[in-house]
Structure formats: structure tokens, C-alpha cells
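Hey, can you fold this one?
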Amino acid sequence: MREEILLTIKRVPTVVSNYQEDASAAAAAAGGGCGRNCLGKCCLPVSKLPLYTLGSDPRRPVISPPTGEELPPDFFLSTLLGQWEDRMIRGLFRYDVTACETKVIPGVHGFIAQLNEGRHLKKRPTEFRVDRVLQHFDPDKFNFTKVGQEEVLFRLEGGDGDSNRAQFFESAPIAGATVSPSVVAINVSPIEYGHVLLIPRVLECLPQRIDEQSLLLALRMAAEGGSPYFRLGYNSLGAFATINHLHFQAYYLSIPFPVEKAPTERIPTARRSLGCGGGGGVKVSMLRSYPVRGLVYEGGSTLEDMNHVVAKSCVCLQENNIPFNVLISDSGRRVFLFPQCYAEKQALGEVSEELLVTQVNPAVWEMSGHMVLKRKEDYEGASEDYAGRLLAEVSLPEGRFQEVKKLVLEAAGMDIEDTNDDSLEPLLLLNNHAEDCLVASSPMKMEMDVCD
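Sure. Predicted structure:
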């Protein structure tokens, strides 16, 4: 689709685990068991962890009533946040993110700025390729099998398919599990309250690439959270993922993201069969009047419908070597897909020094409007103009975005209809989801200092 480039830049990875910096020593020790009670094959198969099994898709009709005691509706999120706070009390984080200053920047979009100087500390330089979205898993580099089990909150599994209700077990053996366990673990360099990592099938050592199975688990986790303020994000390689081991991120922030309030324009599409089913009822729109060009997916009768279309789109980007970020919003009902080119521009020397000096890596959270700033002077001088200029550098040019849009929709089994048809009414839509969220949460929407 575009001329191949071979680029490397010095990447400074965020430390996401307390074992990240001594990963090579731990790898050397692993053989007969590393003695650290880690997530590797040396320790995990004989371990016990808390286990949360997901119930049925909340969009599916309940065929038979649930049996036994049901968990409270907020059990998943309260358990996750409670376990996260427990790890904070135990001193497992590198800094206290709840003490970070946060403000809403005045302006049309209402970008959220946070001063997070802790993420600027205790990092080590490494060579990181930005010209390859798909790269092989390298066991010699840090990966999540080296994480200590004390950083894990619980296993997260999809259930047996027969139960309509979720279940939680305070301790469950790994031995006997039919699949490699998926785990939810803390990010020791958190961006926000409740910042965690979802690591699908950790023992399979999957590289950072989306597939339908892993994305569906992320969507179900968002649905189980049951709150518009609990969101999941994904960064591909080349779009500021710094660890090539499959993972999603999530955290809780009780204010709407700017991208969630942005207007969208519906893309008129006709669904064609790919011979594998799925994807029915999913609508796709483009962001309008927002600094980053992106696609918005919503609707579908089930999470599987949403998953089918979004996963096909992401796989298409991966296979065409186009870096991208994903935001899972509104309890899995909406998904934002952002193809981007900032790292490519950075490696080519096409980003202004004014933006580079801030050392802000525009990943999924920044593209969604949550600007994580590492220097006090940048935080104090943060403006909508600065945020807009940064995000404009991230966005694909209009012509290239239109090419990518056509490419991913075709991969998802959608044909763009002829917009010259006079019978098609204008499809510019205000974001009703964000407006509903604001109305329903009016006591929270004026809360500016969200970190305290």
C-alpha cells in the first residue's frame, strides 16, 4: 500500500512490572524453577490464583434462569479496584498515581491533562523497531511470564458457555485448565486509578497482535465492568506498545473522554457475506471535528458481532503494516480505531522539536483525549492548541486515511455504498452516547481534580 521503510528509533519503555528491569537475570535463573513465583511455565502451572469466570454476553437473551447465587452487578469492577488498592497499600507501584494533578483544559474538546512525573523516571533505553507492526515474540526480552504473581489480581476466563452468570473463586488451581490462563495484573507505572493489564493466554507467549479470541475477551471484560468510566485500550507495535507480548490496558476515570463526545458521520455500507458469519448490525462511522481521524464501531446484536468486525479491521491493519490504537468504550458497545503515523514521522525527523521535547508518546489514551504529561512546565502551560497540534501529527493525512478506511471495511465484509444517491439522508450524528453519559452522571461531570 505504501513504500516499505526500515526505521529504528531509541525507545524508552515504560516499566510496567517490578521484574522488568532484571528480566535477563530471571531468564538465566529459570530452568528448574525460578523461585520467584512468577507467571512462567516454571511456576504458574502448579500455582493457585483468584479466578473470575465471565457469564453470558449481556446482549444475548437468557434462555434459562441462572442457578445459584448471583454476583452483584458491580462486583467485577469493585473487586478489580479493591484488589488494585490492596497492591497500592502493599507498595507494589512505583509512585502514587492518586496524588497526580489532573485538570480539564479549557476549550471545545475539553482535553484532560495529567501531570505524571513518575512515568519519566527509572527507565532504560532499548532498540525498538517502529517499521514492523508484526514482530516475532522474543523470549530473551521482558515479557509477562517474568511478572511476579503478587502483581496479578485474578485470572479472567470466559466460562464454560452454559452458565448465564459470572462466578468468582478466591483461589483456584491452574493445573487442569484446558487453556493457557488469561490474567489481569497491575501496571506498576500507572496512568490512572485502577490501571491494569489484561494478558490473554499468558503461557502461549503471543506477540502483540490482535486476534478474534483475544479481542473478544477484552470486549467481555469491558462489558463486565459495566461502567462508561472503565475503558480498555490497545496499542500496536509502531503505535507505542513497548512490550511485544499480547496485552490490553484498562483503567477507571470518572469523566467522559473528549473522543467519546466528538460528532461522527455514518459511513453508508452494505454487508456482504464472508462465509463465516458474524458482524450483523454493526454500524461504522468516521470521527468529525476531532484532531485525529478514526473509525467508530457500534451496534450489533451481540459482542461477537462487534468483535467479528473490529477484529477483521485490526487484522487487516496488522497485515498491511499500519500501526494503530484501539479504545473500547461504553462497556464494549463502542470501539474507536485509530490508524496512526507518529512514530514513523518521528523516526523520519518530521515532528517538531517543540513536541518532541515533551516526550509525550501519543498512544491510545492520548488519542482519546487524556494527555499524560511528564514535565510540570508542560502541564502548567497545557492548552487545547498544544493538544490539537500533537494529535494532528499522529493522524493519517486525509487521502491516506480514506485508503485505509476502504481497506479495513472491505476486510470486515463491508462495501461502501454510493453516497451520490439522493435517497441517502445526511448521516452526521452528534454523540448521543456521550450526552447520555453526561446527563446520567451530572454529579460527576463538574469534578475536575479526578486524581484525588
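The longest helix spans residues 303-319. Let me know if you want another pass with a different chain boundary.
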